[in-house]
Amino acid sequence: MNFWMGHKGDVxxxxxxxxxxxxxxLIEDMRSRYGRASILLTLNTExxxxxxxxxxxxxxxxxxxxxxGWEYVATLPDSxxxxxxx
Length: 86
Hints:
Strand content: 15-25%
Distance between the termini: 52 Å
Radius of gyration: 28 Å
Number of domains: 2
Largest sheet: 3 strands, antiparallel
Structural class: alpha+beta
Number of strands: 3
Helix content: 25-40%
Shape: rod-shaped
């Protein structure tokens, strides 16, 4: 199992041979690695807004989109319209 996890030796030996006290170098190495990985471990709680997203809507829906802050872009040949979120 240790081989598949990428360990080069028995990981338990590293953490158990020092009688519940880790060497300072190991602690600093763990802090450094956690710091680099923390970007991938944290959740982004702010929803990302997609700037410039376009949508095709019918002419009847156009007024509602314009009232909600969308911007008219173009009219398609089949009379539908393209709007963009601003």
